[in-house]
Amino acid sequence: MASAKLTLPAPTGPYRVGVVDLRIVDKSRPDPVAGPGHFRELMTSVWYPARETARYQLAPWMPPASWGPYVTDQGFDPGVFQPPLTSGHTGAPVLRTERRLPVVVYSHGAHSHRSDNTVVAQELASHGYAVVTIDHTYDAWVAFPDGRVLSPSFTVPMTPKDFAADARSVLDAIEDLAAGRNPDADGRQLPDGLAHALDPRRIGMFGWSKGGTATAYTMLTDDRVRAGLSFDGPMAPQITTDLNRPFMDMTAVFTRADDPDVALFWSHLKGWRLNVQADGAAHSCYSDAESLIPQVARILGMSQQDVESYVGTLDPAEGVHMQQAYPRAFFDLHLRGRRSHLLDGPSPAFPDVKFLP
């Protein structure tokens, strides 16, 4: 029997989307796990508005080499599903624009991978952003160009501060791209127009779960990030420093009411801040699971109770639309100066989204 095809929702923006993978090696950070002479090594993807896509293949959601181990770890048979195709065309030339592209960095959740919020990444790219997603090595399902495939390690400690250090390595690579240099450790050719296309003065960051906490840590240690967004991040108790730049918290499980660390972090936000929460949302609603799990359930005949154990009771269509709309409105405001009424208060388009005082 042929394996079933999973799909991702198409982005809503006016631009076609390109994507390229880059291997980043930070020679200022030795890698004690890999041994002497080895340095911190990260796989990243850069998503961007594309000029022309007809000759460029669509990228899969995950590399095939890491798809099988990841799906098996999630308790499913990888032979039953084909990884969804994204809207990103591999290596397509970058759209020429009057201004450089604002940049958003993405940090994934614990024991996950850089593709787990592809819906948001390609949505932002379709509206004119460059989005750089990071695999946090030793806490990610990651495939390297030389054939190595690593899974999350339970013996190598990877904290949100380690994720934040990775983000700072990627910020350095963004500055390289902005200056016209190629940060790919293998020297592979960049898509036409990517050099000099990114704006290092307009950088935001978002993350899901541990990546949301890492977003906060990154902003506290690196002022290159002008605005941050957390998807249900469990803020660590060590965050006791004031942050005066814009921050938005989209919560589900790790709420101010239920988690003292989140409440403490909120009290240290001294700039623009916003906390929204969707009734019925589960932790995984702020990831591509919101789109993929209902499809998996139909294929496997999972019960509604099983589905709700993954993604809660929030209507999946509203959940996906929420993923697309709120991050874009946030970064539009703080990186582009474009105001959206979506951030002013409750919207009839999102009846389950509540604004928390």
Automatic annotation (TrEMBL):
Keywords: Hydrolase, Lipid degradation, Lipid metabolism. InterPro entries: AB_hydrolase_fold. This is Alpha/beta hydrolase. PANTHER family: PLATELET-ACTIVATING FACTOR ACETYLHYDROLASE. It comes from Catenulispora subtropica. One of its GO terms (molecular function) is hydrolase activity. Gene3D superfamilies: alpha/beta hydrolase (3.40.50.1820).
